[in-house]
Amino acid sequence: MIAPGPTLETPRLLLRPTALEDLDGFATLIGDPESARFIGGVQPRSMAWRAMSAMAGSWVLQGFSMFSVIEKATGRWVGRVGPWKPEGWPGTEIGWALLREYWGRGYATEATAATMDWAVDHLGWTDIIHSIAPDNTASQQVAIRLGSRLLGPGKLPPPYDTTPVELWGQDRDTWRARRQKASTP
Q1: What is d(CA 19, CA 61) in angstroms, rounded to the nearest whole number?
Q2: Taking residues 67-76, what's their average pLDDT?
């Protein structure tokens, strides 16, 4: 079977399109109260299947979706990170959600930076947002490390339209300038 999208590589991670073998990881992610807290709450394995299928389908329908993040050293599924823009979404988002055991290692920042590069270079995105719950300080810190700033309150489509959310983000030129500065000796 031909993958519907590219595989990206960072120093510690492989990012590839969603595959059937990712179901256990997706189920663990949304089955854990802490990992699922800001991505819709705890849900059963059947909903993990639906979420995973929506991401896999987005590769076919839109030409992009969140990548499955694989730790190179172990080959284990770490989470999902990358471009996301379902119907009614407030902008072109790069989002992230990792299994709790991988928090605090810098994986979210590392993977998100790679997918932001890909979104501006290959998808032509001119703006990137991150939809973050107001009390999700860990994700706010990831956004800050990426150079994003608080843009203001946002509104997600139903069934999440009553959930408070803040939009963080930056434009393509700001991101590229930051990346160039980081790579200059």
Answers
A1: 16
A2: 98
- The burial of 133, by beta-carbon neighbours within 10 Å (0-12 exposed, 13-18 middle, 19 or more buried), is given as middle
Contact between residue 94 and residue 123 where contact means Cβ atoms under 8 Å apart: no
Sequence length of the chain is 185
Nearest residue to 112 (alpha-carbon basis) of 127, 98, 126: 98
Residue with tokens 């993990």: 48
Are 110 and 72 contacting, i.e. CB atoms less than 8 angstroms apart? Answer: no
pTM of the entire predicted model: 0.94
Q: Hey, what are 18's tokens?
A: 């969603």
Q: pLDDT digit string (tens) for 34-46?
A: 999 999 899 999 9
Q: How many CA atoms lie within 13 A of 129 on its CB side?
A: 20
